[in-house]
Amino acid sequence: MKKIIILALLAILGTACSTEWKGLRSSLPDLNDKPDGVYRGVYHVSGTPVKVTLDVTLQNGQLTVIRIIEHRSSPIGKKAEKIIDTIIAEQSLAVDSISGATGSSIGIKKAVEIALE
Prior knowledge:
Layout: H1 2-17, E1 37-44, E2 51-59, E3 62-72, H2 83-90, H3 102-116
């Protein structure tokens, strides 16, 4: 329980210390000529404890699987992981962040973008 409280406080303090990440936008690069495969992306959201490592599977120019390898965040940030379903369904990173887990949502989207660059 103490770890959860400490992580929550760190997340709050990190958010209070830096909000520059709130303006970050992500977009998918052109995937038409990208070979099928599994691509790794890592992103640390500046000023927060959020760090995301994930693998993106690309098949025939489409995102088919996004698998989180590591997601360091406050406990509430874990709910951002459901954004993966929306990213795959929309085949886009221009999707709404998960309310209450904005930092983690941005981290996941940026990690996907980095994986496919």
